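1st attempt posting a full record on here, be nice pls
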Amino acid sequence: QDGRNRPSPPAAKMAAHEKRRAAAAPAPAPAADSGLAEPARAAAGGLGSEAEFLLRAGVTAMVREALLKVLEARPEEPVSFLADYFERLVLGSPGAAGEAAAELPGPPQRLARALWYVRLAHHSHRTAFDSNAGAAYEVLGAGGRRRKAGVDGRLYSELLRRICQHGGAPTEAAAALLGRVRCRDHEAMPFDVFRYGVLTCFVLLEFAAKADALFGVLDGGSGAADGRVCQAVLRALEDALGTGRFSLPSHYLEAGSKLGPDGLALAMDRALQEGKLSTSMSREEFLKKATALFVAKVKPVE
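the predicted structure (as tokens):
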């Protein structure tokens, strides 16, 4: 009796076939006036419409130019560079999205812009540093390519002073350095002299930072170090700077870095074995003496 209620094999196969065909059939398209067609079309064309919006609004070109500026400047902090770039762009600053040599309203604005350029990349990144120095040079030229006489000595000297001030260079060392690389106010500075002065100021800042770190080893965190040891280290530093002939200020950093731990330890050990009474030396005095060694080696601008 149960066998009479079961479908025959051909009927079962036909039912299974119809079931598979119904599952594979596409869903009916919504009617044009049903209200469901518009979201479907929007989802399909969303990607294209977003790209078109960015293109029409100029965002694509603006972001592309910003990325090119980052690659050109090679800043040490790319995110801060981009933030400053877009801020200047919003404020309508000339040169933020156009030519770097665009004329700015007056000397204070041009100096601020030039300082921003020269601080973008470390001087060890030579290509980026030279490019940024060139942009600063054109900005200070107060007319870009329309004037090719160069930057006047007054703006050049003020830029060097601001570099040393913002970098926290020891006051006496900065004044002595500026006395060697500055020019007369009325002189027009060629780019090679401009670059030399800017580079020398940044090297002084790094040299002072390395000397400060060295004193941190000598004083052990007390704020004062043994005068004999400090004098021995300074003599060793002077000997390192006095070896060889240097054509670039950055080479003085290389010479100072050759003061290996063994050489310093030997100099310090000899100083302690002398048995002489010694007073302590403060951090300020040590930095003053160390940076004076550097400034004495800088070739004056003639």
